[in-house]
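User: My instructor asked us to take a sequence, write out its structure as tokens, and then describe one feature of it. I'm not sure where to start. Here is the sequence I was given:
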Amino acid sequence: MEKRVWIIGASSGIGLELVKLWLQNNYLVIASSRNIENSNELLNLKSTYMDNLQLLNIDVLDNENVIKSVDRVFNIFNGLDICFYNAGVYESMTYEQWNISNFESMIDINYLGVLRVLKPLISYLEKQNNKSTIVLNASLASCFGLPYGGAYSASKAALVNLAQSLQPELQRKNIYVQIINHGFVKTRLTAKNDFEMPQLMQVDYAAKKIFEGLNKPYRFEISFPFLLSSFLKLLSFLPYSWSFSITKRFLK
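Assistant: Let's start with the prediction itself. The structure tokens for your sequence are:
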């Protein structure tokens, strides 16, 4: 049976590349974003994969809109196997540049948006007989707070913590939670950075790593690239006096 996947945040970057990979591998795909019809690439894909690709607008900031979108999703392909939450915003700021609206935006989309989707989504998934998977695109930034990235990493750390708490509950209902912790990917978001990004990856490479990881035997976390992942996880295990002596070297 063809796998049915819904991706939220599909109009560009990793989301768009994953849509392409899924379609090339005969998945049934529902691609969503706030203004999905503005993506010429997705419209072109729709003309090629008329039966396998559906486009659906969603505003993860609007709870009523999310509830209606979830209901529509489950009627498009008569159920769902994978929901991939990829919507996200990012700003890097020194404390002098703090703008509370940026903090609110990152929490609202990167974290609270997930809650708005999961509340109605889980009630549908648990009524299905088949195994299903909820995939949350987090970040290696969730491992340890780095200078200038506190607002973003806080939202992703909250997301990871939520996933950790949900996994035991949902697995009893045959719903599996997975997180994607990846490093720097060359997208419109990381284009804002004015610092050197170690192991910067092309978006098609990152999407392929995620696609391959999701098709391996289940594990809660998919993380890459290896060196950056190992370094940031090591920071979280070191005594703070050691880890801070390392991170202060990142200051401009």
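For the description part of your assignment, you could build on this observation: Helices lie at 13-24, 40-48, 63-76, 100-125, 150-171, 203-214, 226-237, 240-247. Try explaining in your own words what that tells you about the chain.
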